[in-house]
Amino acid sequence: MALLRVTTALLLVCAARLGAQTGKASEAQVKAVFLFNFAQFVDWPADAVPDSQAPLVIGILGGDPFGDLLDATVRGEHRGARPFVVHRYQRLEDITRCDILFISRSVADQPDEVLTRLKNRPILTVSDADQFAERGGMIRFVTDRSRIRLQINQEAAEAAHLTISSKLLRVAEVVTPTGR
Amino acid sequence: MSLRDWPIKQKLTAMLVLISGLVLLLTSAAFAGYQYWSLRQATRDALAVRGRIIAANSTASLAFANVADAREILSALRADRHVVAAVLYDKGGHVFAGYPTGVAGADLPAVPGPDGYRFERGLLIGFQPVEESGSQRLGTLYLASDLGAIYDTFRLSGVIGLAVMAVALLAAYLLSMVLQGAISEPILALAETAKAVSTRQDYSVRASKVGADELGALTDAFNQMLGRIEDQKNELQRYAAELEQRVEERTHELQERNESLRRNAAELLAANTELDAFAYSVSHDLRAPLRSIDGFSQILLEDYAGKLDEAGQESLHRVRAASQRMGTLIDDLLKLARVTRAEIRTEDVDLSVMARDIVADLERATPERQVEFAIAPGLSARGDARLLRVALDNLLRNSWKYTAKQPQPRVQFASVEANGGRAFMVRDNGAGFDMKYADKLFGVFQRLHSAADFEGTGIGLATVRRIITRHGGRIWAEGAVDQGATFYFTL
Looking at the complex, does the CB of residue B138 fall below 8 Å from at least one CB of chain A? Predict the structure, then answer.
């Protein structure tokens, strides 16, 4: 009984801390970290990387919800020898070379066109738009009771020759595209 | 009972068991130490491996803040009952997830410590960095394991070790019981033999030799010694028997000799006594006719003087003189015989006083002679006073007599050192004697001077010698013609 009580107390403490962190750090902060973390769990095809020191580009298409949070998160970070850079795009045409692309909700309102145009390009597409994964996006942020969960469309990633780590898959919800 | 009094068998067995026990103990201790050390290593390595696996599995959970997944991963630690706690910390060092669900105890670190695995406060703890593909640190995994695994294994090996040690000690004991015989048996055999020799005095037993080692050499030497002792003992016994026989023979011989001596002595004594008795009775019987001769010669001279001429009277005077001399002779002979027969009564005698007494008598009898006497004072002896007086009287009277022709006669009585003892001495400066006749001086009727020069019977010195001899003493004389004589005697 005593153990149970202590356990419960500790649980509460843990939850409170987590809550405080996420709550205070805000959704945008968490998402920025997640974007950065994706780089650790995704492998790009070899022909998509010009050389071993080429920067790893995180792009933001449309309105930027992060402010300078994303820049702060990736500042000074590397994946292997590749430094992280953040690029902001207003139009799809602006995208030349990009590894991870966050598509803002405004653009994602018509995602089908965007997704069709990005299809088979080795770019990890991420968005928090509804039905994003079902519609052919790769990863969607789902806000669930102040927590961020992930939905992953593995087929889309495979079509773009991206390999998503099974570890990432394990913490996410794997969805299959509709209408097929 | 102190250790040195233990029987040799027990000593050897104890030594062997002690040595084996010590070796076993040291070996076991070394092995246990090594095992403890290697067990700790192994346990630490095992926990490190486990930590790396869990850390690798929980990267995504941390990266994407999936607490449920993290808990699930940590809950796999249930399979290891020794892992008491596990905590995942996020990048910021805050507790992210714990095992068991909700971690118990104040021992849990609130923030992660330095990376690595170590033993702390009876626990094995480790901080494992959580990284994905080695590039980015996502958090830290804390693992705490009790040392039960080490202790379980250690306890098991302890029990096995004790069992092995017990069996080994038992084996060592049994083996030493058998093997100690190789050393103790010959020693015990030797001791047994030595005991038999010393208690039964039996030198014919021999210790049996077991091997050709030092104990064998000892046994050989012991047996040789026994052999030599036996030989010597036999020889001694032979000598003793021989000696005994010889002593017996000698004793027998001596007894025979003694017997014959006693017989001779008895015979001699009888003969002597008979002779003395004869001499005494002869002398005594001779006096009566002699007195008649003298008496009737006197009657003739007094009553018939007118009828006898001058020549007749002269002849009768000679008859009387001769018969008187014969009387003196007979008196002396009687005196000698009496000396021989008299019993000796020993007492303290002052010879100086006695000598002065005799000299006074002499001077009273012949006051016309002037002789210088030098008598040393305080000469004393133990003996028969009557007989000693006779002897001393004879000696002094002798000197008195033989100094008669000396213009300045001198007689000395003193004691001197002679032959390592004390001797009395009577010395005069009278006529002396020729030393070649010295042995005749003390014989009966032996005279060195004619009766015309010095009258005498030749019995005096014989009497003196008999008296001295009867006192157990000795008498001898030195002298030269006209140079005086010296008589020495001891008592």
Answer: yes
Contacts of B66 in chain A (CB under 8 A): 171
- CA–CA distance, B476 with B469 (Å, rounded to integer): 11
Q: What is the pLDDT of residues B371-403, one digit of tens each?
A: 899 999 999 999 999 899 999 999 999 898 888
Amino acid at B238: R
Whether complex ipTM tops 0.90: no
> B340 pLDDT exceeds 80?
no
Residues of chain B contacting A80 with CB distance shorter than 8 Å: 133, 135
B373 contacts B386 by C-beta, under 8 angstroms: no
Report DSSP state, residue B206: -
CA-CA-CA-CA torsion sign (B50, B55, B57, B61): positive
Decide which of 3.40.47.10, 2.40.110.10, 3.40.50.1110, 3.30.565.10 is the CATH code for B344-489: 3.30.565.10
Class of domain B3-171: alpha beta
CB neighbours of residue B231 within 10 Å:
11
Residue-wise pLDDT tens digits, A45-60: 988 888 888 899 999 9
Residue A79 in contact with partner chain B when CB distance is under 8 A: yes
Does this model's pTM top 0.90? no
